[in-house]
From TrEMBL:
Reactions catalysed, as given in the entry: tRNA(Ala) + L-alanine + ATP = L-alanyl-tRNA(Ala) + AMP + diphosphate
Record protein name field: Alanine--tRNA ligase
Enzyme Commission numbers on file: 6.1.1.7
Subunit structure: Monomer.
Note on domains (UniProt): Consists of three domains; the N-terminal catalytic domain, the editing domain and the C-terminal C-Ala domain. The editing domain removes incorrectly charged amino acids, while the C-Ala domain, along with tRNA(Ala), serves as a bridge to cooperatively bring together the editing and aminoacylation centers thus stimulating deacylation of misacylated tRNAs.
Cofactor binding notes: Binds 1 zinc ion per subunit.
Enzyme class at the top of the EC tree: ligase
Domain Alanyl-transfer RNA synthetases family profile: residue ranges: 3-495
Length: 495
């Protein structure tokens, strides 16, 4: 039996909607609206936050939801769930992915949720149960929480042998959307790609052979800003399964990239660049980083297509600057590693729209808008890189040959002291990298933060070593979160 991604998605939704009376609700935007979080939508539950908290306005449609299922567009760049650094390097984490979800809002709880999940995997998708591992919350003394033995016993009563039911602590089995908000213990289902062995040590251990496919969260608490937990008015179920991972499992491959969600995009990349045909090679086996680049480019193309379609513009505001960074990285990999000719990023939009268009019809409606934004972003990026190279030449002429750039020199480049254009961090990274110049990102960000903090508090510090132009200061102030977000900083320091 061959499963297409469309079948996998439809089977999930049919199971919950037809067999168990869930209502289908369309995916919300990846750009959260008020009250749904400050980062990209990172899971299916974001749009239902008011239902968990008990704050959904009465008599609205949402207030009537008891059982819901959907396929949610998710982006994990920035915020509590940030997977950017893994993307391309492994075969299972994306910046954009689809989460197949099912919910009970104050309706059924743990027992039914586990039974439905097992039934879907075993009877409908026909996965061999002896490949599955089931984790439960092992308790957390710091939070004053006991192990979820109820959950363990449910899996036992459903016939799962004890050696495949495993306890884990808060970092794996206590789910929260962000630093505050609805949360609770969870139980997860992991799949062993190899089989005929005891793989329990490989669960949650970063092995590419044993992969988490489904998370069932038992929403019971509302985390306060002081980190303490307050019980929610009702208990809820919130589950999320990664569509791309499930497609890979059903296709018998360890790679999400060897599925119909990515193959058509790779085909276009190959045609545009003439690069060798894609293979699922990672790490040192991927000589020249060609396959990693394929993965990053295809992944990022899906991410920017969806974000722009949902109304985000590259560079605008905090999320927009994260989007622009992802696009810049995509352009770098596409042009420099895969040797794409200039102006060809836009060709990736069509295969992405085609592969996702059936479940997200807004993509084809917005396709021209997406293409325009992509074209403009690539043009601008190439133009600033060109300017940046000239600016660096100028600087070198003045300061002599350099092996590194000081934080102050980086800020000079940032605000266009040696040229007409201001430069984003991606561009500085790019042009410095071309000349093997060491960069001091830590110093750079601490200088910037000192400046941004001082204008935020409306008092100019006189002792700082650099002076930022008004325009740059304003832009930085708007984007403040980008510069205090550790993981994003990491992106720049890690090369
Ligand atoms: P992992 O431990 O593999 O990083 P997670 O525990 O962070 O996953 P959850 O927050 O529990 O993931 O999300 C629910 C499901 O969504 C996961 O079980 C997985 O199938 C899928 N998923 C999570 N993150 C990604 C991602 N970056 N790309 C693709 N699928 C993902
Ligand atoms: Mg994760
Ligand atoms: Mg996990
Ligand atoms: Mg998980």
């Amino acid at each position: 039996e061959k499963w297409s991604s469309k079948d996998v998605r439809k089977t999930f939704l049919d199971f919950f909607c037809s067999r168990y009376d869930h209502k289908f609700v369309t995916s919300s935007s990846v750009i959260p609206s008020k009250g749904q979080g400050t980062y990209f939508t990172n899971s299916g539950m974001n749009q239902f936050k008011p239902l968990f908290l008990g704050t959904a306005p009465p008599f609205t449609e949402m207030a009537s939801y008891r059982r819901v299922a959907n396929s949610q567009k998710c982006v994990r760049v920035g915020g509590k769930h940030n997977d950017l650094e893994d993307v391309g390097r492994d075969l299972t984490h994306h910046t954009f992915f689809e989460m197949l979800g099912s919910w009970s809002f104050g309706d059924y709880f743990k027992k039914d949720a586990c039974a439905m999940a097992l039934e879907l995997l075993r009877e409908v998708y026909r996965l061999p149960v002896d490949r599955l591992y089931f984790t439960y919350f092992g308790g957390d003394p710091d939070l004053g929480l006991k192990p979820d033995l109820e959950c363990r016993n449910i899996w036992r009563s459903l016939g799962i042998p004890e050696n495949r039911i495993l306890p884990f602590g808060s970092s794996d089995n206590f789910w929260d959307m962000g630093d505050a908000g609805p949360c609770g213990p969870c139980t997860e289902i992991h799949y062993d790609h190899i089989g005929n062995r005891d793989a329990s040590k490989l669960v949650n251990a970063g092995s590419p052979d044993v992969i988490e496919i489904w998370n069932l969260v038992f929403m019971e608490y509302d985390r306060q800003s002081d980190r303490s937990l307050r019980p929610l008015p009702q208990q809820h179920v919130d589950t999320g399964m990664g569509l791309e991972r499930m497609c890979a499992v059903l296709a018998g491959t360890k790679s999400n990239y060897s599925t119909d969600l990515f193959i058509p995009v790779f085909r276009v990349i190959q045609k545009e660049t003439g690069a060798p045909i894609y293979q699922d090679l990672t790490g040192s086996a991927d000589i020249g980083g060609i396959n990693t680049a394929y993965r990053m480019v295809a992944d990022h193309a899906r991410m920017f297509t969806v974000c722009i379609s949902d109304g985000l513009l590259p560079g605008k505001g905090d999320l927009g600057s994260k989007l622009r960074s992802v696009m810049h990285r995509c352009i770098q990999q596409y042009r420099e590693v895969l040797k794409a000719p200039p102006g060809h990023l836009v060709k990736l939009v069509d295969p992405v729209v085609e592969s996702l268009g059936e479940s997200f019809p807004e993509l084809s409606k917005n396709s021209q808008k997406i293409k325009d934004a992509v074209q403009l972003t690539e043009d601008r990026y190439m133009q600033t890189v060109e300017e940046g190279r000239k600016a660096l030449d100028k600087m070198m002429k003045k300061k002599g040959d350099l092996t590194y750039l000081t934080a102050e020199a980086m800020i000079d480049l940032r605000q266009g002291k040696y040229g007409n254009l201001t430069m984003s961090e991606d561009v500085i990274q790019q042009i410095a990298g071309e000349r093997n110049l060491q960069l001091n990102w830590e110093g750079y960000y601490s200088l910037l933060n000192a400046q941004v903090v001082s204008i935020d508090s409306q008092e100019q510090e006189e002792t700082t070593k650099v002076t930022l132009s008004h325009a740059v200061l304003q832009e930085l102030s708007r984007q403040r979160i980008s510069y205090t977000d550790d993981s994003l900083k990491y992106m720049y320091t890690r090369n």
